[in-house]
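Reviewer comment 2.1 asked that we show a complete input and output for one of the modelled complexes. We chose the LQZAQKY5 case, as it is the one discussed in the main text.
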Amino acid sequence: MLVSIPQALDLINEKVTPLDGEIIPIEYSVGRVVQDSYTANFNLPRFDNSAMDGYAVKVSDAGSTVLCTQVIYAGDNPSIELKIGHAIKIMTGAPIPKGCEAIVPIEDVTIEQDKVTLPGNIKMGNFIRLAGEDIAKDTTYLHQGEVINAYTVASLASQGVTHITVNRKIKIAIFGTGDELRPHFEKIEDHQLYNSNSPMFLTRSKELGCEVRFIRSSADTLEALQDSVASVLDADIIITSGGVSVGDKDFTKEAFTNLGMQIHFEKVDIKPGRPTVFGTIGRTVVVNLPGNPLASMVNYELFIRAIIRKMSGRNDARHGTVTTIMGEELKLKGGKTTALLGTFDGKSFTPIHNQKPGMVSPMQKADGMILLSPDIAHLSINSTVKMIPLRWESCTEKTEDLINRFSE
Ligand SMILES: Nc1nc2c(c(=O)[nH]1)N[C@H]1C(S)=C(S)[C@@H](COP(=O)(O)OP(=O)(O)OC[C@H]3O[C@@H](n4cnc5c(N)ncnc54)[C@H](O)[C@@H]3O)O[C@H]1N2
Ligand code: MOO
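Response of the prediction step:
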C-alpha cells in the first residue's frame, strides 16, 4: 500500500501506543516523559519574603529617620512585628515580619548607629516576594506527556518531589542486511562496504533517549534474517535497513511477514525512501528502511522519530516546523514528493548541494529538512519554506551581537 507522508504519520499515530511507566528519582529523569500531572502541594515561595538585603519598613515612614535594632536572616522564623517609626534589617530570602509594607535596599538608606534615614518615596509592596507568586498551591506545574528538562527538575525539587512516574525507556533493536556489509571495526575487501546505517541509528536512537541493542548485520538469506528477527521480538521497535526494494535478495519484508508482521504501510510517496515499511508484530513496532544511507536517515527522522515520541507518551508527538526562507535558489526535477536536507542559520534554509540517496556525507551537515510537493520544480531565493528541524541549535564561529537594541 502506497501512502502519502501525512497518511504515514497518521497511521503511526494511530498504531503506536505509549509504553508502561516506572518510578525514578528526578535526578535521573532528564529527557523522560511524565505519566502523571504534578500539582503544587504548597505555595512557592512558601511565605512572603524579602527580594533584597535591606530594611523592612512602613510606607508612611518614607523620608523620616526610624529606629532599627533587630535583624531577620534567611532561615529565621520571626515572631516580631514592625511598628511605625521602626525598621527591621532583613536579608534576601528572609521572611518579612508582620506589619512590613515594603523593603528598602541597603544602598538607598543612610545609617547612623541604630538610626536609619529612609528615602522620600517608598512604594507599597516594593521588593516583597509574595507567597505563591512563583507556583501557587494546587496549580499544575507539570503536565502528563511533557518531557523533563533541567528546569522541570528545578520545579519538582522546589516542591520537594523526589521520584516521578515516567515512561520506561524504549528498547530498540537495529540491524542491517546485506552480504556486502561488514562491521566498521573489521578489515574489509575492496568489494565490501562498512555498515554505517546501524551505528548511525544506534547513535541517533540513544540521542533520542532510547536503549539500543545493536545487532550488526545478518547474512542475505531469508532464514538468517528470520533467525535474527526472532531473537529481538522483545524489543519495542525493530529497525532494519536494506533489502526492501525489488532485488533478488530483498526479502526483509518477507522475513517479518513470516514472523507475523501486520503491515500498515509498505511504500511512502517520498523521494528518497519510497520502499519504507511500517508494521507491527504484537506490540513490537517494525520499520524496514531502505539501505541507501541518506534515504534511511530521512525516513528515520520522519517516521521513527515520530514513533519514538508517541511511544514515549509525549503529548506533542507530531512534527512541527519552523517557517523560514530559502537561502538560495533551488531547481529540482519535480514530479515527486521530495525531502531535501539543508543547513539553517536561524535566518534561512540552504539545501545541501549534491545530496543523493546513497550518500553518507551530506547527513552530518543537515540542520533540517524541507518537504516539497511534486508540483514544485523551482524555489526562488527568499521564498518562504517550512522546515522540520533535525538537530538545530544556534551557535556561530564569529562573535554575534546578542543584545536586542533600540532601532527606529
Ligand atoms: N529496480 C529497482 N531498483 C531499485 C528500486 C526500485 O524501485 N526498482 N528502488 C531503489 C530505491 S528508491 C532504493 S532506496 C533502494 C533500496 O534498496 P534496499 O532497501 O533493498 O537496500 P539494498 O539494496 O540492500 O541497499 C541499497 C544500498 O544501500 C547500501 N546499504 C545497505 N545497507 C547499508 C548499511 N547498513 N550501511 C551502509 N550502506 C548500506 C547498499 O550497499 C546499497 O548500495 O533500492 C533502489 N533500487
Ligand atoms: O528513494 Mo530511494 O529510497 O532512492 O533512496
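The first helix runs from residue 5 to 15. We note this here for comparison with the apo prediction described in Section 3.2.
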